[in-house]
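Final report, Chapter 2: Outcomes

The project's central promise was a pipeline that accepts a single protein chain and returns its three-dimensional structure in a standardized token representation, suitable for archiving and comparison. That pipeline is now operational. To close this chapter, we reproduce one record exactly as it appears in the project archive, with the input sequence first and the structure output second.
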Amino acid sequence: MAWVLDTEYIEPEELTAVTRRALAEQQVNAFTLGRWLPNVVIDDITFQYTKGGTGGLAEASVYRSWDAESRIGRREGVSQVMGELPPISEAIPLNEYDRLRIRSLDDADPVRRAIAQDAYRLATNIAARFEVGKGEALANAQFTINENGVTLAPVDFGRDPAHSVTAAVLWSDHANAVPLDDLESWVQTYIDTNGRPPARMLMPRTVLSHLRQCDQVVRQVYPLAPSGSSPMVSVEQLNTVLESLDLPAIELNDARVSVDGTPTRIMPVDALVFVPDPGPTDAAAPTDLGGFLLGTTAESLEPEYAGVDGRAGVVAATWKTKNPVRLWTHAAAVGMPVVREPNLTFKAVVV
């Protein structure tokens, strides 16, 4: 089936601009993990970054004697990491029947509007898959692909094993679990590694519900209530307890998307994840933690895309097939999350 570029309704440079704006809007309005791993455009299909350059404990200088030589500094734990960015693309057809029907609508250009709507949908779909990758990177410090007949061996970003733990007593055991002790211990591990505490803990409602019912938490709010008879602690009361113990604030993340037809959670259902302070929702540069790198597609190098402003990032165009007659709105990108300071995250399985 031969595809031919169609510019009757919209040029690739205009449709690409629409798609890129839609992708940026998704990072700001629909998906939240871009505050830690923002979309970052690079004009390449490979990535290279310095691991260990900004996280961990600060290396303190030392005093010297008068007239003595300066101590030579060191870059402890710094290494260069390289890899390749995988491709992702999708096309939505405008069938001949639908195309004929919408041409009769009372609209200046209904086909053009339909194409723009399809481009927005494609951007949303791509952003959803990117968000799954960001969630995996934050929770597991790795990135994998196993869908649509494509398998990518896990890219392991190298988080310290001490930052991936399981509670000794799961928080679903409300009578015996000690979640506040657990959190204080895990926060201390995070501080020992990074020199500062985590800013927030991401968790689903299932974890929040169990945390509110644990006896150790309930006793902080209702110390005189008979065992097993006290009410569930409210979210407001829980936040007060956490703040009084100088523990990180809770941010709920129960987002789900469909990946290759399978409902998929963005963050794990049974765990919490410590993260540092978030950046702005519209960031375009990596944070200390890392970023989601968007590289250069093969499509952008083709003559049909010559008018597109900047080769790197998502690109889109309308294509036509003759047998049967169809218009296709097509969007393509290459990209994956890259975590350059994996120890700024911490995962604890708690239920």
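Archive annotation: The chain is about 30% helix and 25% strand.
This record, like all others produced under the grant, will remain available to the consortium after the project formally closes.
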